[in-house]
Amino acid sequence: MKKKKLWFTDDFSPANVAKLQAEGWILRKASACHASDTVENCDEVGGDVPKQYNETVVAFDVTEGFIPVEQFDAVNTELVETQDELAKTKLSLDDATKHTADLEQKQAVQMTEFEQQKSGLETQLETLEQENTLLKADLAELYKLQNKPAAVDPSTLKVDELKALLTEKGIEFKPNANKEELLALVPKE
Question: Which letter, b or e, does each residue of 42-68 get, where b requires 16 or more Cβ atoms within 10 Å of its Cβ?
Answer without folding.
Answer: beebbbebbebbeeebeebeeeeeeee
